[in-house]
Automatic annotation (TrEMBL), chain B:
<feature type="transmembrane region" description="Helical">
    <location>
        <begin position="164"/>
        <end position="184"/>
    </location>
</feature>
<keyword id="KW-0472">Membrane</keyword>
<protein>
    <recommendedName>
        <fullName>ATP synthase subunit a</fullName>
    </recommendedName>
</protein>
<dbReference type="InterPro" id="IPR023011">
    <property type="entry name" value="ATP_synth_F0_asu_AS"/>
</dbReference>
<comment type="subunit">
    <text>Component of the ATP synthase complex composed at least of ATP5F1A/subunit alpha, ATP5F1B/subunit beta, ATP5MC1/subunit c (homooctomer), MT-ATP6/subunit a, MT-ATP8/subunit 8, ATP5ME/subunit e, ATP5MF/subunit f, ATP5MG/subunit g, ATP5MK/subunit k, ATP5MJ/subunit j, ATP5F1C/subunit gamma, ATP5F1D/subunit delta, ATP5F1E/subunit epsilon, ATP5PF/subunit F6, ATP5PB/subunit b, ATP5PD/subunit d, ATP5PO/subunit OSCP.</text>
</comment>
<keyword id="KW-1133">Transmembrane helix</keyword>
<keyword id="KW-0812">Transmembrane</keyword>
<keyword id="KW-0999">Mitochondrion inner membrane</keyword>
<dbReference type="InterPro" id="IPR000568">
    <property type="entry name" value="ATP_synth_F0_asu"/>
</dbReference>
<dbReference type="GO" id="GO:0005743">
    <property type="term" value="C:mitochondrial inner membrane"/>
</dbReference>
<comment type="similarity">
    <text>Belongs to the ATPase A chain family.</text>
</comment>
<feature type="transmembrane region" description="Helical">
    <location>
        <begin position="98"/>
        <end position="117"/>
    </location>
</feature>
<keyword id="KW-0375">Hydrogen ion transport</keyword>
<keyword id="KW-0138">CF(0)</keyword>
<feature type="transmembrane region" description="Helical">
    <location>
        <begin position="191"/>
        <end position="222"/>
    </location>
</feature>
<feature type="transmembrane region" description="Helical">
    <location>
        <begin position="137"/>
        <end position="158"/>
    </location>
</feature>
<dbReference type="Pfam" id="PF00119">
    <property type="entry name" value="ATP-synt_A"/>
</dbReference>
Length: 253, 226
Protein backbone atom coordinates (compact mmCIF):
# COMPACT_ATOMS: atom_id res chain seq x y z
CA UNK A 1 0.00 0.00 0.00
CA UNK A 2 2.86 2.36 0.69
CA UNK A 3 4.10 1.88 -2.83
CA UNK A 4 0.79 3.27 -4.05
CA UNK A 5 1.20 6.33 -1.83
CA UNK A 6 4.72 6.82 -3.11
CA UNK A 7 3.55 6.58 -6.70
CA UNK A 8 0.71 9.05 -6.23
CA UNK A 9 3.07 11.48 -4.48
CA UNK A 10 5.51 11.14 -7.34
CA UNK A 11 2.69 11.78 -9.80
CA UNK A 12 1.75 15.03 -8.11
CA UNK A 13 5.39 16.10 -7.87
CA UNK A 14 6.22 15.47 -11.51
CA UNK A 15 3.21 15.50 -13.84
CA UNK A 16 5.19 13.68 -16.49
CA UNK A 17 5.26 10.72 -14.15
CA UNK A 18 1.44 10.63 -13.98
CA UNK A 19 1.35 7.79 -16.43
CA UNK A 20 3.46 5.85 -13.99
CA UNK A 21 0.46 5.73 -11.65
CA UNK A 22 -1.03 3.05 -13.86
CA UNK A 23 1.89 0.86 -12.91
CA UNK A 24 0.76 1.14 -9.29
CA UNK A 25 -1.25 -2.07 -9.02
CA UNK A 26 1.31 -4.00 -10.99
CA UNK A 27 4.06 -2.83 -8.69
CA UNK A 28 1.88 -3.80 -5.74
CA UNK A 29 1.46 -7.28 -7.13
CA UNK A 30 5.16 -7.57 -7.76
CA UNK A 31 6.01 -6.68 -4.20
CA UNK A 32 3.69 -9.32 -2.74
CA UNK A 33 5.38 -12.68 -2.53
CA UNK A 34 3.38 -15.73 -3.45
CA UNK A 35 4.51 -19.29 -3.90
CA UNK A 36 8.00 -18.60 -2.73
CA UNK A 37 8.45 -21.99 -1.03
CA UNK A 38 9.23 -25.19 -2.85
CA UNK A 39 6.07 -26.95 -4.02
CA UNK A 40 5.36 -30.31 -2.39
CA UNK A 41 6.69 -33.03 -4.62
CA UNK A 42 4.98 -35.90 -2.81
CA UNK A 43 1.38 -36.11 -1.63
CA UNK A 44 1.01 -34.22 1.63
CA UNK A 45 -0.01 -36.65 4.39
CA UNK A 46 -3.72 -36.30 5.14
CA UNK A 47 -4.95 -34.74 8.35
CA UNK A 48 -6.02 -37.19 11.04
CA UNK A 49 -9.75 -37.81 11.00
CA UNK A 50 -10.32 -37.60 14.74
CA UNK A 51 -8.58 -35.45 17.29
CA UNK A 52 -6.57 -36.79 20.17
CA UNK A 53 -8.44 -38.63 22.91
CA UNK A 54 -9.38 -36.45 25.84
CA UNK A 55 -10.67 -37.33 29.29
CA UNK A 56 -13.29 -35.11 30.89
CA UNK A 57 -13.22 -32.93 27.79
CA UNK A 58 -10.17 -31.02 28.99
CA UNK A 59 -7.21 -33.19 29.85
CA UNK A 60 -5.56 -35.13 27.06
CA UNK A 61 -5.01 -38.85 27.46
CA UNK A 62 -1.26 -38.42 27.09
CA UNK A 63 -1.20 -36.60 30.41
CA UNK A 64 -2.63 -39.65 32.15
CA UNK A 65 -0.26 -42.01 30.36
CA UNK A 66 2.65 -39.77 31.29
CA UNK A 67 1.73 -39.85 34.97
CA UNK A 68 0.82 -43.52 35.32
CA UNK A 69 4.37 -44.88 35.79
CA UNK A 70 5.05 -42.35 38.50
CA UNK A 71 1.82 -41.64 40.32
CA UNK A 72 -1.89 -42.05 39.87
CA UNK A 73 -3.31 -38.92 38.20
CA UNK A 74 -6.53 -39.02 40.18
CA UNK A 75 -4.64 -39.22 43.44
CA UNK A 76 -2.51 -36.33 42.27
CA UNK A 77 -5.59 -34.31 41.42
CA UNK A 78 -7.34 -35.03 44.71
CA UNK A 79 -4.19 -34.21 46.63
CA UNK A 80 -3.75 -30.89 44.85
CA UNK A 81 -7.36 -29.89 45.44
CA UNK A 82 -7.26 -30.79 49.13
CA UNK A 83 -3.96 -28.96 49.52
CA UNK A 84 -5.36 -25.83 47.89
CA UNK A 85 -8.48 -25.98 50.10
CA UNK A 86 -6.71 -26.58 53.33
CA UNK A 87 -4.09 -23.90 52.86
CA UNK A 88 -6.78 -21.49 51.67
CA UNK A 89 -5.00 -21.01 48.41
CA UNK A 90 -8.47 -21.48 46.98
CA UNK A 91 -11.02 -19.77 49.25
CA UNK A 92 -14.55 -21.11 49.41
CA UNK A 93 -16.68 -18.07 48.70
CA UNK A 94 -19.99 -17.20 47.09
CA UNK A 95 -18.36 -17.84 43.77
CA UNK A 96 -17.83 -21.47 44.72
CA UNK A 97 -21.51 -22.20 44.81
CA UNK A 98 -22.06 -20.23 41.65
CA UNK A 99 -19.29 -22.25 40.02
CA UNK A 100 -20.79 -25.48 41.33
CA UNK A 101 -24.20 -24.65 39.93
CA UNK A 102 -22.87 -23.45 36.57
CA UNK A 103 -20.60 -26.45 36.15
CA UNK A 104 -23.35 -28.77 37.34
CA UNK A 105 -25.80 -27.38 34.77
CA UNK A 106 -23.14 -27.59 32.04
CA UNK A 107 -22.24 -31.21 32.83
CA UNK A 108 -25.90 -32.16 32.96
CA UNK A 109 -26.54 -30.49 29.62
CA UNK A 110 -23.54 -32.10 27.96
CA UNK A 111 -24.35 -35.54 29.30
CA UNK A 112 -27.96 -35.33 28.25
CA UNK A 113 -27.73 -33.60 24.88
CA UNK A 114 -24.15 -34.35 23.89
CA UNK A 115 -24.83 -37.47 21.81
CA UNK A 116 -27.79 -35.76 20.15
CA UNK A 117 -25.68 -32.78 19.07
CA UNK A 118 -22.87 -35.09 17.95
CA UNK A 119 -25.27 -37.15 15.85
CA UNK A 120 -26.75 -34.00 14.42
CA UNK A 121 -23.34 -32.69 13.38
CA UNK A 122 -22.48 -36.09 11.90
CA UNK A 123 -25.76 -36.07 10.03
CA UNK A 124 -24.99 -32.64 8.57
CA UNK A 125 -21.64 -33.88 7.32
CA UNK A 126 -23.27 -37.06 6.00
CA UNK A 127 -25.72 -34.95 4.05
CA UNK A 128 -22.92 -32.97 2.44
CA UNK A 129 -21.07 -36.11 1.51
CA UNK A 130 -24.27 -37.74 0.28
CA UNK A 131 -24.92 -34.79 -2.00
CA UNK A 132 -21.52 -35.06 -3.59
CA UNK A 133 -21.85 -38.83 -3.79
CA UNK A 134 -25.22 -38.36 -5.45
CA UNK A 135 -23.69 -36.07 -8.03
CA UNK A 136 -20.93 -38.57 -8.72
CA UNK A 137 -23.39 -41.46 -8.97
CA UNK A 138 -25.64 -39.49 -11.26
CA UNK A 139 -22.71 -38.75 -13.52
CA UNK A 140 -21.65 -42.40 -13.52
CA UNK A 141 -25.22 -43.48 -14.23
CA UNK A 142 -25.49 -41.04 -17.08
CA UNK A 143 -22.31 -42.33 -18.64
CA UNK A 144 -23.41 -45.94 -18.09
CA UNK A 145 -26.68 -45.19 -19.85
CA UNK A 146 -24.77 -43.67 -22.73
CA UNK A 147 -22.56 -46.79 -22.93
CA UNK A 148 -25.60 -49.08 -22.94
CA UNK A 149 -27.27 -47.05 -25.63
CA UNK A 150 -24.10 -47.16 -27.69
CA UNK A 151 -23.87 -50.94 -27.27
CA UNK A 152 -27.45 -51.47 -28.32
CA UNK A 153 -26.89 -49.22 -31.31
CA UNK A 154 -23.88 -51.30 -32.28
CA UNK A 155 -25.94 -54.48 -31.96
CA UNK A 156 -28.58 -52.96 -34.17
CA UNK A 157 -25.97 -52.08 -36.73
CA UNK A 158 -24.99 -55.76 -36.88
CA UNK A 159 -28.56 -56.67 -37.81
CA UNK A 160 -28.89 -53.94 -40.36
CA UNK A 161 -28.20 -56.29 -43.31
CA UNK A 162 -31.62 -57.90 -42.86
CA UNK A 163 -33.19 -54.58 -43.56
CA UNK A 164 -31.03 -54.10 -46.60
CA UNK A 165 -31.87 -57.57 -47.93
CA UNK A 166 -35.57 -56.93 -47.59
CA UNK A 167 -35.20 -53.59 -49.29
CA UNK A 168 -33.15 -55.14 -52.05
CA UNK A 169 -35.79 -57.81 -52.58
CA UNK A 170 -38.49 -55.22 -52.69
CA UNK A 171 -36.66 -53.20 -55.24
CA UNK A 172 -35.90 -56.26 -57.36
CA UNK A 173 -39.56 -57.21 -57.30
CA UNK A 174 -40.61 -53.74 -58.25
CA UNK A 175 -38.12 -53.70 -61.09
CA UNK A 176 -39.36 -57.08 -62.28
CA UNK A 177 -42.95 -55.91 -62.15
CA UNK A 178 -42.23 -52.77 -64.13
CA UNK A 179 -40.22 -54.76 -66.64
CA UNK A 180 -43.06 -57.17 -67.19
CA UNK A 181 -45.56 -54.39 -67.43
CA UNK A 182 -43.52 -52.71 -70.06
CA UNK A 183 -43.03 -55.97 -71.91
CA UNK A 184 -46.75 -56.53 -71.93
CA UNK A 185 -47.36 -53.03 -73.13
CA UNK A 186 -44.86 -53.48 -75.92
CA UNK A 187 -46.53 -56.72 -76.89
CA UNK A 188 -49.89 -55.08 -76.89
CA UNK A 189 -48.72 -52.19 -78.97
CA UNK A 190 -47.10 -54.45 -81.49
CA UNK A 191 -50.18 -56.62 -81.65
CA UNK A 192 -52.23 -53.52 -82.11
CA UNK A 193 -50.19 -52.46 -85.07
CA UNK A 194 -50.25 -55.93 -86.59
CA UNK A 195 -54.00 -56.22 -86.03
CA UNK A 196 -54.39 -52.94 -87.77
CA UNK A 197 -52.50 -54.20 -90.77
CA UNK A 198 -54.48 -57.45 -90.80
CA UNK A 199 -57.78 -55.68 -90.57
CA UNK A 200 -56.66 -53.32 -93.27
CA UNK A 201 -55.78 -56.33 -95.42
CA UNK A 202 -59.11 -58.04 -94.65
CA UNK A 203 -60.96 -54.94 -95.43
CA UNK A 204 -59.11 -54.49 -98.65
CA UNK A 205 -59.84 -58.10 -99.66
CA UNK A 206 -63.49 -57.74 -98.81
CA UNK A 207 -63.72 -54.55 -100.64
CA UNK A 208 -62.01 -56.10 -103.58
CA UNK A 209 -64.33 -59.11 -103.40
CA UNK A 210 -67.37 -56.95 -103.22
CA UNK A 211 -66.11 -54.80 -105.96
CA UNK A 212 -65.34 -57.85 -108.07
CA UNK A 213 -68.76 -59.32 -107.37
CA UNK A 214 -70.45 -56.09 -108.15
CA UNK A 215 -68.45 -55.76 -111.31
CA UNK A 216 -69.17 -59.30 -112.30
CA UNK A 217 -72.86 -58.88 -111.52
CA UNK A 218 -73.02 -55.65 -113.37
CA UNK A 219 -71.39 -57.09 -116.40
CA UNK A 220 -73.39 -60.27 -116.24
CA UNK A 221 -76.54 -58.28 -115.95
CA UNK A 222 -75.34 -56.10 -118.72
CA UNK A 223 -74.43 -59.08 -120.78
CA UNK A 224 -77.81 -60.61 -120.47
CA UNK A 225 -79.57 -59.33 -123.62
CA UNK A 226 -83.27 -58.97 -123.76
CA UNK A 227 -83.64 -61.99 -126.08
CA UNK A 228 -81.73 -64.23 -123.80
CA UNK A 229 -83.75 -62.98 -120.90
CA UNK A 230 -86.97 -63.90 -122.56
CA UNK A 231 -85.70 -67.28 -123.51
CA UNK A 232 -84.47 -67.93 -120.06
CA UNK A 233 -87.71 -66.92 -118.48
CA UNK A 234 -89.75 -69.12 -120.88
CA UNK A 235 -87.48 -72.05 -120.10
CA UNK A 236 -87.92 -71.45 -116.39
CA UNK A 237 -91.64 -71.41 -116.73
CA UNK A 238 -91.63 -74.64 -118.66
CA UNK A 239 -89.44 -76.26 -116.07
CA UNK A 240 -91.67 -75.08 -113.32
CA UNK A 241 -94.71 -76.53 -115.05
CA UNK A 242 -93.03 -79.86 -115.39
CA UNK A 243 -92.08 -79.79 -111.73
CA UNK A 244 -95.58 -78.85 -110.74
CA UNK A 245 -96.93 -81.79 -112.63
CA UNK A 246 -94.44 -84.05 -110.99
CA UNK A 247 -95.24 -82.63 -107.65
CA UNK A 248 -98.89 -83.04 -108.05
CA UNK A 249 -98.37 -86.63 -108.98
CA UNK A 250 -97.05 -87.39 -105.58
CA UNK A 251 -99.78 -88.67 -103.27
CA UNK A 252 -100.54 -86.63 -100.28
CA UNK A 253 -99.76 -88.72 -97.29
CA UNK B 1 -15.11 -13.17 50.38
CA UNK B 2 -14.73 -10.34 47.93
CA UNK B 3 -14.30 -6.92 49.47
CA UNK B 4 -17.60 -5.81 48.10
CA UNK B 5 -20.27 -7.16 45.88
CA UNK B 6 -19.15 -5.32 42.81
CA UNK B 7 -15.57 -6.49 42.80
CA UNK B 8 -16.23 -8.87 39.97
CA UNK B 9 -17.31 -5.98 37.78
CA UNK B 10 -14.07 -4.05 37.96
CA UNK B 11 -12.32 -4.02 34.62
CA UNK B 12 -9.34 -6.28 35.21
CA UNK B 13 -5.85 -4.95 34.79
CA UNK B 14 -2.54 -6.74 34.69
CA UNK B 15 0.16 -4.52 36.14
CA UNK B 16 -1.84 -1.48 35.15
CA UNK B 17 -2.38 -2.66 31.60
CA UNK B 18 -5.96 -3.24 30.61
CA UNK B 19 -6.55 -6.96 30.31
CA UNK B 20 -10.10 -6.20 29.30
CA UNK B 21 -8.88 -5.87 25.72
CA UNK B 22 -7.56 -9.43 25.82
CA UNK B 23 -10.80 -10.62 27.39
CA UNK B 24 -12.88 -8.96 24.71
CA UNK B 25 -10.64 -10.45 22.03
CA UNK B 26 -10.90 -13.98 23.48
CA UNK B 27 -14.34 -15.25 22.23
CA UNK B 28 -13.40 -15.38 18.53
CA UNK B 29 -10.80 -18.00 19.44
CA UNK B 30 -13.67 -20.32 20.25
CA UNK B 31 -15.17 -20.08 16.78
CA UNK B 32 -12.71 -21.74 14.41
CA UNK B 33 -12.70 -21.22 10.67
CA UNK B 34 -12.09 -24.00 8.28
CA UNK B 35 -11.39 -24.27 4.60
CA UNK B 36 -12.63 -27.86 4.34
CA UNK B 37 -16.07 -29.02 3.36
CA UNK B 38 -16.29 -31.71 6.02
CA UNK B 39 -15.21 -30.45 9.45
CA UNK B 40 -15.18 -31.68 12.97
CA UNK B 41 -18.36 -31.52 15.01
CA UNK B 42 -17.62 -28.19 16.64
CA UNK B 43 -17.13 -26.34 13.40
CA UNK B 44 -20.07 -28.10 11.78
CA UNK B 45 -22.50 -27.16 14.55
CA UNK B 46 -21.19 -23.61 14.74
CA UNK B 47 -21.47 -23.13 10.99
CA UNK B 48 -24.98 -24.54 11.03
CA UNK B 49 -26.01 -22.21 13.86
CA UNK B 50 -24.53 -19.16 12.17
CA UNK B 51 -26.23 -20.05 8.91
CA UNK B 52 -29.55 -20.46 10.71
CA UNK B 53 -29.34 -17.14 12.57
CA UNK B 54 -28.16 -15.18 9.57
CA UNK B 55 -30.96 -16.56 7.42
CA UNK B 56 -33.55 -15.80 10.11
CA UNK B 57 -32.30 -12.30 10.66
CA UNK B 58 -31.60 -11.07 7.20
CA UNK B 59 -34.66 -12.26 5.29
CA UNK B 60 -36.69 -9.24 6.31
CA UNK B 61 -34.26 -6.74 4.84
CA UNK B 62 -33.95 -5.48 1.31
CA UNK B 63 -30.68 -5.44 -0.61
CA UNK B 64 -29.45 -2.28 1.07
CA UNK B 65 -30.20 -3.63 4.52
CA UNK B 66 -28.45 -6.90 3.76
CA UNK B 67 -25.13 -5.08 3.43
CA UNK B 68 -25.30 -4.96 7.23
CA UNK B 69 -25.52 -8.74 7.55
CA UNK B 70 -21.88 -9.26 8.53
CA UNK B 71 -22.19 -6.56 11.18
CA UNK B 72 -25.37 -7.94 12.70
CA UNK B 73 -24.34 -11.60 12.67
CA UNK B 74 -20.98 -10.85 14.23
CA UNK B 75 -22.79 -8.67 16.80
CA UNK B 76 -25.12 -11.40 17.92
CA UNK B 77 -22.31 -13.96 18.05
CA UNK B 78 -20.09 -11.62 20.04
CA UNK B 79 -22.75 -10.74 22.59
CA UNK B 80 -23.92 -14.34 22.98
CA UNK B 81 -20.42 -15.78 23.47
CA UNK B 82 -19.36 -12.98 25.79
CA UNK B 83 -22.45 -13.38 27.96
CA UNK B 84 -22.12 -17.14 28.11
CA UNK B 85 -18.42 -16.98 28.96
CA UNK B 86 -19.25 -14.56 31.76
CA UNK B 87 -21.21 -17.28 33.51
CA UNK B 88 -18.03 -19.21 34.25
CA UNK B 89 -16.73 -18.68 37.76
CA UNK B 90 -14.30 -15.84 38.38
CA UNK B 91 -14.66 -14.51 34.87
CA UNK B 92 -15.16 -10.99 33.67
CA UNK B 93 -18.00 -10.07 31.34
CA UNK B 94 -17.26 -7.07 29.17
CA UNK B 95 -20.94 -6.50 28.49
CA UNK B 96 -21.49 -5.56 32.12
CA UNK B 97 -19.59 -2.36 31.47
CA UNK B 98 -21.88 0.43 30.34
CA UNK B 99 -19.00 1.99 28.44
CA UNK B 100 -18.69 -0.98 26.14
CA UNK B 101 -22.42 -1.28 25.51
CA UNK B 102 -22.69 2.40 24.75
CA UNK B 103 -19.76 2.02 22.40
CA UNK B 104 -21.66 -0.74 20.60
CA UNK B 105 -25.13 0.83 20.65
CA UNK B 106 -24.52 4.47 19.73
CA UNK B 107 -22.56 3.94 16.49
CA UNK B 108 -24.95 1.26 15.25
CA UNK B 109 -28.06 3.28 16.00
CA UNK B 110 -26.52 6.47 14.62
CA UNK B 111 -25.50 4.56 11.51
CA UNK B 112 -29.06 3.47 10.81
CA UNK B 113 -30.49 6.93 11.46
CA UNK B 114 -27.95 8.71 9.30
CA UNK B 115 -28.45 6.17 6.54
CA UNK B 116 -32.18 6.82 6.70
CA UNK B 117 -31.75 10.56 6.60
CA UNK B 118 -29.32 10.40 3.71
CA UNK B 119 -31.35 8.20 1.43
CA UNK B 120 -35.03 8.60 2.14
CA UNK B 121 -35.33 11.89 4.01
CA UNK B 122 -39.10 12.15 3.77
CA UNK B 123 -39.67 8.65 5.11
CA UNK B 124 -37.18 9.22 7.91
CA UNK B 125 -38.85 12.42 8.95
CA UNK B 126 -42.28 10.82 8.67
CA UNK B 127 -41.36 8.52 11.54
CA UNK B 128 -41.75 11.46 13.86
CA UNK B 129 -45.51 11.53 13.48
CA UNK B 130 -47.69 8.44 13.72
CA UNK B 131 -50.61 8.18 11.35
CA UNK B 132 -54.01 9.48 12.23
CA UNK B 133 -53.19 11.83 15.09
CA UNK B 134 -55.66 14.60 15.75
CA UNK B 135 -54.31 17.97 14.68
CA UNK B 136 -54.04 19.72 18.10
CA UNK B 137 -51.81 16.93 19.39
CA UNK B 138 -49.23 17.20 16.61
CA UNK B 139 -46.59 19.46 18.26
CA UNK B 140 -46.55 17.43 21.44
CA UNK B 141 -46.41 14.18 19.55
CA UNK B 142 -43.47 15.32 17.44
CA UNK B 143 -41.57 16.15 20.60
CA UNK B 144 -42.43 12.79 22.11
CA UNK B 145 -41.39 10.91 18.99
CA UNK B 146 -38.11 12.81 18.85
CA UNK B 147 -37.37 11.92 22.44
CA UNK B 148 -38.23 8.28 21.83
CA UNK B 149 -35.90 8.24 18.83
CA UNK B 150 -33.03 9.82 20.74
CA UNK B 151 -33.49 7.45 23.64
CA UNK B 152 -33.06 4.33 21.47
CA UNK B 153 -29.25 4.00 21.82
CA UNK B 154 -29.41 4.65 25.56
CA UNK B 155 -32.12 2.05 25.91
CA UNK B 156 -30.12 -0.50 23.93
CA UNK B 157 -26.98 -0.04 25.98
CA UNK B 158 -28.63 0.23 29.38
CA UNK B 159 -30.90 -2.74 28.70
CA UNK B 160 -28.00 -5.04 27.99
CA UNK B 161 -25.87 -3.74 30.85
CA UNK B 162 -28.65 -3.88 33.41
CA UNK B 163 -29.79 -7.37 32.50
CA UNK B 164 -26.38 -8.99 32.56
CA UNK B 165 -25.20 -7.09 35.64
CA UNK B 166 -28.39 -7.88 37.53
CA UNK B 167 -28.08 -11.53 36.68
CA UNK B 168 -24.48 -11.71 37.82
CA UNK B 169 -25.30 -9.88 41.03
CA UNK B 170 -28.19 -12.17 41.83
CA UNK B 171 -26.03 -15.25 41.31
CA UNK B 172 -23.36 -13.76 43.55
CA UNK B 173 -25.87 -12.88 46.26
CA UNK B 174 -27.61 -16.20 46.33
CA UNK B 175 -24.22 -17.93 46.29
CA UNK B 176 -23.17 -15.99 49.35
CA UNK B 177 -26.55 -16.76 50.90
CA UNK B 178 -25.90 -20.48 50.51
CA UNK B 179 -22.45 -19.98 51.95
CA UNK B 180 -23.87 -18.24 54.98
CA UNK B 181 -26.70 -20.73 55.43
CA UNK B 182 -24.35 -23.69 55.21
CA UNK B 183 -23.12 -22.95 58.70
CA UNK B 184 -26.54 -22.13 60.15
CA UNK B 185 -29.13 -24.49 58.76
CA UNK B 186 -28.08 -27.22 56.35
CA UNK B 187 -31.43 -28.29 54.75
CA UNK B 188 -32.28 -24.74 53.75
CA UNK B 189 -28.89 -24.66 52.06
CA UNK B 190 -30.10 -27.26 49.65
CA UNK B 191 -33.24 -25.28 48.99
CA UNK B 192 -31.25 -22.19 48.27
CA UNK B 193 -28.86 -24.23 46.17
CA UNK B 194 -31.79 -25.40 44.10
CA UNK B 195 -32.78 -21.78 43.61
CA UNK B 196 -29.24 -21.11 42.48
CA UNK B 197 -29.43 -23.87 39.90
CA UNK B 198 -32.69 -22.50 38.56
CA UNK B 199 -31.16 -19.08 38.42
CA UNK B 200 -28.22 -20.45 36.47
CA UNK B 201 -30.54 -21.87 33.89
CA UNK B 202 -32.27 -18.51 33.71
CA UNK B 203 -28.96 -16.75 33.29
CA UNK B 204 -28.01 -18.92 30.38
CA UNK B 205 -31.29 -18.10 28.75
CA UNK B 206 -30.90 -14.41 29.53
CA UNK B 207 -27.42 -14.38 28.05
CA UNK B 208 -28.69 -15.68 24.77
CA UNK B 209 -31.86 -13.68 24.76
CA UNK B 210 -30.13 -10.39 25.41
CA UNK B 211 -27.85 -10.95 22.48
CA UNK B 212 -30.82 -11.70 20.35
CA UNK B 213 -32.78 -8.68 21.52
CA UNK B 214 -29.92 -6.30 20.94
CA UNK B 215 -29.33 -7.50 17.44
CA UNK B 216 -33.02 -7.67 16.67
CA UNK B 217 -33.57 -4.08 17.66
CA UNK B 218 -30.63 -2.85 15.62
CA UNK B 219 -31.96 -4.79 12.71
CA UNK B 220 -35.38 -3.22 13.27
CA UNK B 221 -33.95 0.25 13.21
CA UNK B 222 -32.15 -0.74 10.05
CA UNK B 223 -35.35 -1.93 8.45
CA UNK B 224 -37.06 1.34 9.22
CA UNK B 225 -34.31 3.29 7.63
CA UNK B 226 -33.55 1.38 4.43
Amino acid sequence: MLSRVVLSAAATAAPSLKNAAFLGPGVLQATRTFHTGQPHLVPVPPLPEYGGKVRYGLIPEEFFQFLYPKTGPYVLGTGLILYALSKEIYVISAETFTALSVLGVMVYGIKKYGPFVADFADKLNEQKLAQLEEAKQASIQHIQNAIDTEKSQQALVQKRHYLFDVQRNNIAMALEVTYRERLYRVYKEVKNRLDYHISVQNMMRRKEQEHMINWVEKHVVQSISTQQEKETIAKCIADLKLLAKKAQAQPVM
Amino acid sequence: MNENLFASFIAPTILGLPAAVLIILFPPLLIPTSKYLINNRLITTQQWLIKLTSKQMMTMHNTKGRTWSLMLVSLIIFIATTNLLGLLPHSFTPTTQLSMNLAMAIPLWAGTVIMGFRSKIKNALAHFLPQGTPTPLIPMLVIIETISLLIQPMALAVRLTANITAGHLLMHLIGSATLAMSTINLPSTFIIFTILILLTILEIAVALIQAYVFTLLVSLYLHDNT
